[in-house]
Amino acid sequence: MILRRLLTPLGLAFWAMIVAIPFYLVVTMSLKSPADLQYGPLKWPETLKFSNYWTAWQQANMGQAFLNSILITGVSLILIVVFSSMAAYPLARRTDRWSGALYVYFLAGIMVPFQLAMIPLYKLLNGLNLIGKYPGAIAVYIATGIPFAVFLYVSFFKTVPRELEESAQIDGSGPFRTFWKILFPLVKPITSTVVIIKSLFIWNDFFIPLLFLQSKAMRNIPLSLYSFTSEYTNNWVLIFAAVVIGSLPLIALFLALQKHFIQGIASGAVKG
Amino acid sequence: MRRTGIDGVFLLPAFLVFTIFLAYPVLSSFYYSMTDWNGLSPTIDFIGLDNFRKLAHDKDVWKGLQNTLVIALLVTVLQNVIGLLLALGLQKTGFVQRLLRAWYLLPALLSPLAIGYIWSYMYNPQFGVINTILEFVGLSGWAQDWLGDRRLAIYSVIAANLWQWVAFSMIIYVAGLQSIPRDMYEAADIDGAGAFSRFKNITFPLVAPAFTVNIVVTMIVGLKLFDIIFIMTNGGPGGSTENLAVMLYRQAFALNRMGYANAIALLMFAMILVFSLVQIALLRRREVEY
Q: What b/e string do you get for A99-123 counting C-beta neighbours within 10 Å, with b at 16 or more?
């Protein structure tokens, strides 16, 4: 019993350390000057060279990358939420064979690994002249985001009583007004789950931009980080400075909305 | 009639985007896997099942399949064991518990690219952190070339992936544990049940839904693992970390064998499908039994 009481805090402290060491490495490395590098990776830097951040920002063209990431993530999230919640509404309400089949059709998308779509998608986007352009990548993010979001929205709409929309209809509200003014605000918990899970994925995604947004002006943050391996010899100080810059937005958002994040992950996973 | 029209308007945007940019490509991948398309030439020749025949005799594919399974198995087991252990330690709702949960989750917010850079440096044989620490505590004999050694590289990659994602499983387990009613434990205490018996008879059966979700999700993620391998080793050294996902990217975009790569993608899909269906069937049955 005493052993167990000791073991739990020791184990938890151990994992906290395991998490801490790489973060310590990133932050201290990002502030080192060349002279500091010879004293080993864990030595605290003699002088904190904050100018590394500015150098990394310029070399990897991170201003542009930030704009690209914000645009791609923002537009994709909005359209995933709008399209999926709209589609989920009739799917949750109708009970005929067509609705059932359509629901299964959307859901099948959860099972399919993206790699299976990758090559034909490359050809399709090439044919549509969408390689290296925002709409191509955004369309792919929406298409791959729809199955999960539709699933969550349908299960939630099924719990919303019909009386709500019926009384709105009697008051003369049209179907679109009823949906956006009455039903959509009710499904806010699902919207926040979808937004959190999908923003984690899209903001950090490397694979889809690698395939479809290679050109320098279109790079998102992960691709601009990747440019350090392809274009410069491994300058670790600048790489880690760029890692810090690129990771800050999500970490700040997480610290501000911690509770929502954790709830979003838990409920998104359990239902998805 | 009017109702159907309105339904159609609600459904149309999602239906169109999903069909054009996911369903249609997925379905046409069955066709491309039976062609010799190289990604550049305008002509695409239909070659039947040749790609699949080649696949069955390709030593690299068998090695890639083996790597895929090793990665998926270890990712699933380690992430769930450690995730559940951490969750058991943090299921209470105090300040320290909340702080640690948030702290553990931080790596999950980084992009796989950042993880790749960070752990490449951690593992570096000359100036890396792990060897430095080993030397510091007097275990310099344990120092290794973590990513350069054929036998070790795959485990090093798996460990880095574990570092990033274990808290995801933990959060799901915590949610499962917190939904267990307090009085069940109180009843067990009155009956004089020991700690192990409590875990076996109450905790474990009641986190079963969280268990099912975690196992299936981590398994699928493990079978598809790409980014972190691509950044850290790109399948090397000597193909020792090349799983099917990395292999098919190389076949498609480095070797311009689009048709063949698509056949590999189909193999991967078949594996994911079979594994998840079997797992869901097995785990759901266990949930019901209790």
A: beebbeebeebeebbbbbbbbbbbb
Superfamily of domain covering A66-271: MetI-like (1.10.3720.10)
The structure's pTM equals 0.89
Rg (CA), chain B: 24
Best B41, B79, B86, B110 residue to mutate vs chain A (most A CBs within 10 Å): B110
What is the nearest CA distance from A152 to chain B, expressed in angstroms? 14
Question: Tens of pLDDT along B142-181?
Answer: 888 899 899 999 999 999 999 999 999 999 999 888 888 8
Q: What is the pLDDT of residues A180-202, one digit of tens each?
A: 988 899 888 889 989 988 998 99
Rounded to two decimals, the ipTM of the complex is 0.89
Which of A79, A119, A244 has the highest number of chain B CBs within 10 A, making it the mutation to test binding with B? A119
**Which residues are registered as beta bridge partners of B46?**
B35
Q: Dump the DSSP string for B199-257.
A: IIIIIHHHTHHHHHHHHHHHHHHHHH--HHHHHHTTT-STTTT--HHHHHHIIIIIS--
Of chain A residues 155-194, which have a CB less than 8 A from chain B? 175, 179
B266 vs A222: CB contact, 8 Å cut-off?
Answer: no
Domains of chain B, each with CATH number or no CATH: 58-289 (1.10.3720.10)
Put simply, the answer to whether A251 touches B26 (Cβ < 8 Å) is: no
| Domain extents in chain A | 66-271
